[in-house]
Amino acid sequence: MTMSFKELGISREMQMMLLENDITEPTPIQEKAIPLLLEGRDVIAQAQTGTGKTFAFLLPIAEGIDTSNPAVQALVVAPTRELAIQITQEARRLQGYKNFNILSAYGGQDVEKQLRRLKGAIHLVIGTPGRLLDHLRRKSLSFKQLRMLVLDEADQMLHMGFLAEVEAIIKQTPEDRQTMFFSATMPSAIKALAANYMKKPSNVKVQSETITLEEIKQLVIETTDRSRQAVLLQVLKDYNPYMAIIFCRTKRRAAALNEALQMHGFKTDELHGDLTQGKRERVMRDFRRGAVHYLVATDVAARGLDVEGMTHVINYDIPQDAEAYIHRIGRTGRAGQTGMAITLATPKDRGTLGLIEKGIRMTIQKTRLKLAEDEYVLQEESKGRTGRTSGNKDNKSKGQGGKKPYHKESVPAKGQASKGKFGEGKKEKQGKKGNNNFKRTESKGNRGDGQLNRGETKDSKSNSQFNRADAKGPKRSDSKRGKANPNTKNTHSRNKR
């Protein structure tokens, strides 16, 4: 039977604040951790994201802050800016109870602005390791009177290489403080850290099945690298998510996919480590208010991102392990709502998928999508294959220096005629040689798009150059080449490139 916040020891005033925020009953991690923390004990809490662990430590902190003392009394260390911002937003929901002051300190912000804020009374500091150490070196922050220390997502800090920075911060705090570790997993290095800096900690663990299995419908769509983007477009068309995060493996892939989706009329934006803090905050603000429907992100967004109304999570690239998978799909199906997680998997992903299924102790439903080939043509499919290229004469001008981007014109934009084999967009007359543009692989002029067929023969290259120049020459209004010989035309094309 679920306990009430009153039974956990939360004050009546704080209960009223929780009711105002539509929080009526505690989650399992809150039930187990809050009584221990209110007693002043050190706690190691192992729980996945989405279990309510943020309030599990913020409620005892809010209860324990003495607003008559202007010193910093509580510190929450988070591995990423996104998580620090999320914790700060949750803490502000409790400010009306005691009107305690909060400082959020993370990279990308104006340091001088933070320093000005520190001149007043600050009771709770929430920050990332790098920026906290920066303030400690400047002597703009002092933790001499700190009474409560929280390391949130401790395992993530270990993975990101922040262990030395975390220890340096801990050493600047009093030994008699209360220490709390919250982590999804408990690697040996985190256990060693706890042994060095905690006093007889109580261990609390909450299983993750409720957030992984019960509230989220999971689906694997089998595809190939060549058709991955086409499958994603079909998924967005078939499922029509209200709000979704689309996860990519790298920043470059996220940026390229975001650009491709925008080319097809989707309201998307990207979130990854290369963005400035101002840009990241603007992206999240637009996403929360609905100006952006789909957020294309790397795993930097997987931790601490809580957006109300998130209906879908799409793994465009499969996560590396079960833990990363849980953190990704945990963005949906929160607070008792249902959600859907769709993972695109290629044959080479089968091993990773097997490990994920073993980690969550279930077999995920698998399916394939039937794609309309006349509607979806991918740049990747042109490599080494015949009869698949678009024959678009503009491809040459859109080259990107040998990179392999998502082809902006792989699917026709809304209201735009398709070009090439599958459409009637080309109306110029072509002879037998002109038709070769549809029967062979991409010509030399498309090297900028990474579409040159390496198996192409020298004869077919020269023939394709002649055909390209022949097709373009008569169409140019400013062309004075007349019936120049093919060698002259090829020289002009190369110089133009």
How would you characterize this protein structure?
This protein has three domains: 5-206, Rossmann fold, CATH 3.40.50.300; 210-367, 3-Layer(aba) Sandwich (Rossmann fold), CATH 3.40.50.300; 379-488, no CATH class. Mean pLDDT is 76; it is low at 374-497. Strand 3 (102-105), helix 7 and strand 4 (124-127) form a beta-alpha-beta unit. The protein is globular. The strands form two sheets. A seven-stranded parallel sheet has the order 3-4-2-5-6-1-7. A seven-stranded parallel sheet has the order 10-11-9-12-13-8-14, with helices on both faces. It has 497 residues and is α/β, with parallel strands linked by helices. Helix 19 packs across helix 20 (486-496). The protein contains 20 helices and 14 strands.
